[in-house]
């Protein structure tokens, strides 16, 4: 079965709405599929769709240029809209006037440096860990923690004033 057909079938079984089923038609390349994944990330995370094994089999090694990493160790600066799946170990930096969203899943562990006027929102799930360093008071970081197992390590010791941590009483959106 073709990749797009399999994604549509699996999504439909997990409750993917008709509008999104229609988006999964035709001969979509990896870039288009990754854009759909990020745009519909709330459904994908809630329903574990596609599964980590599916991502490893069909996307690992191809999706990274578009912002979806699977078991990789990215070192990136000012990259918008990143999804780290599996066991990623990365070093991310945000500075200047960059604005980004970061989704950290499974057992990923990352170090993040934020400075200047950068605005970063990080959603943490599963057994993830983030080491966060914020330089200056002009940057803004929002951490949305889902479940009780994600860990936050403030590299400088205490939570900076420009960081907001939202603990959610559920494991996903």
Brief synopsis:
Helices cover 23% and strands 33% of the residues. It has 173 residues and is an alpha/beta fold.
End-to-end separation: 31 Å
Q: Mean of the pLDDT scores?
A: 96
Low-pLDDT residue intervals, each spanning 5 or more residues: none
The helix/strand class is alpha/beta
Strand content: 25-35%
Q: Which geometry do the CA atoms define? A: globular
Quaternary structure type: single chain
Strand order of the largest sheet: 1-3-5-7-9-11
Task: Name the features.
173 residues, alpha/beta, 6-stranded parallel beta sheet, 5-stranded parallel beta sheet, 5 helices, 33% strand, globular
Task: Describe what you observe in this structure.
The structure is a single chain. By secondary structure, the chain is of the alpha/beta class. It is built from five helices and eleven strands. The strands form two sheets. The chain has a six-stranded parallel beta sheet with strand order 1-3-5-7-9-11, with helices on one face. It has a five-stranded parallel beta sheet with strand order 2-4-6-8-10, with no helix packed on it. The longest helix is centred in the N-terminal third of the chain and has 11 residues, at 3-13. The mean pLDDT is 96.
């Amino acid at each position: 079965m073709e990749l797009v057909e399999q994604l549509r079938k699996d999504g439909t079984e997990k409750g993917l709405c008709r509008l999104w089923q229609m988006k999964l038609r035709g001969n979509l390349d990896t870039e288009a599929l990754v854009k759909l994944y990020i745009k519909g990330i709330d459904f994908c995370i809630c329903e574990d769709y596609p599964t980590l094994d599916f991502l490893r089999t069909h996307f690992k090694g191809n999706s990274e240029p578009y912002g979806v990493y699977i078991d990789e160790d990215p070192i990136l600066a000012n990259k918008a809209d990143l999804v780290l799946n599996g066991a990623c170990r990365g070093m991310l930096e945000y500075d200047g006037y960059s604005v980004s969203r970061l989704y950290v899943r499974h057992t990923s562990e990352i170090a993040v440096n934020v400075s200047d006027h950068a605005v970063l929102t990080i959603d943490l799930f599963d057994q993830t860990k983030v080491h966060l360093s914020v330089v200056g008071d002009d940057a803004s970081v929002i951490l949305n923690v889902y479940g009780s197992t994600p860990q936050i390590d403030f590299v400088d010791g205490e939570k900076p004033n420009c960081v907001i941590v939202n603990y959610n009483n559920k494991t996903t959106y």
